[in-house]
Amino acid sequence: MVVLETKNLRKVYGKGETQVNALDGVDLSVQRGEFVAIVGTSGSGKSTFLNMAGGLDVPSYGEVAVDGKNLGTLSEKELAVFRRRKIGFIFQQYNLIPMLNVYENIILPLKLDGRKADKEYVEEITKALDLGRKLKSFPNQLSGGQQQRVAIARALVTKPAIILADEPTGNLDSATSQDVLGLLKVTSTKFHQTIIMITHNEEIAQLAGRIIRIEDGKIV
Asked: Which of 13, 30, 112, 187 can pair with 4 through a Cys bridge, CB separation 3.0 to 4.6 Å?
């Protein structure tokens, strides 16, 4: 089943001589359960693509569909709700709330949506990510790797259609990076979770099941 599909996706900035085609006609489909890495140099368009796929930005032309829903047909309010329920985000900056403990940070997307946490599922993902003993700790009491594990758990907790990871190991040392990436791969398999990860690191990309290269706004 196709979870993400883009058709002739374009993002244009500026006009005339200053026009920049950040994305230039990207057609892509991702199946449920795939772990896809999108690689490219700085300015290649990979971050722009992730923002389009996650409904964080609006394409100039073309379509983005997530879990069968065309994002362009949604109002701003509908899109915010759809993102919260269907799309999980993992950023380079962990974006944890300092005054909330680990457990509260993990279930925050559910609370914002007025839903109760599935305690068995939360226990399952925190166990898989080795966070069971840290649930009452606060972000400033955790290492970078532990904070990124919390961010992964938070992305998983809503059981989203897709998880978008933006340079998820950018702030981690090489050993911790391998650990976090291994956990991403485990969660992809264990929870049959669709993950799209952008990275400029070829070695990191090799851990994904499929590698897509973007240069000058096009898939090459």
From this structure: 30
**Is there a contact between 218 and 25 (Cβ–Cβ < 8 Å)?**
yes
- Cβ(209)–Cβ(30) under 8 Å? no
Could you report the per-residue pLDDT of 78-109, keeping only the tens digit for each? 999 999 999 999 988 889 999 999 999 999 99
For residues 141 and 113, is the Cβ–Cβ distance under 8 A? no
What residue ranges do the domains of the chain occupy? Answer: 2-219
Q: Which of 98, 180, 94 is nearest to 137 (CA)?
A: 98
- SS3 of 49-67: the string is HHHHHCCCCCCCEEEEEEC
109-121 per-position pLDDT tens digit: 999 988 998 899 9
Determine the Cα–Cα distance for residues 128 and 180; give it in Å rounded to an integer: 12
Cβ contact 7:62 at 8 Å: yes
Q: 3-state DSSP call for residue 97?
A: coil
CATH homologous superfamily of domain 2-219? P-loop containing nucleotide triphosphate hydrolases (3.40.50.300)
Of the chain, the end-to-end C-alpha distance in Å amounts to 24
Which residues are within 8 A (CB) of 72 and not within 5 positions of it... i.e. 6 or more apart?
58, 59, 63, 64
Could you say which DSSP state residue 161 is in?
A: S
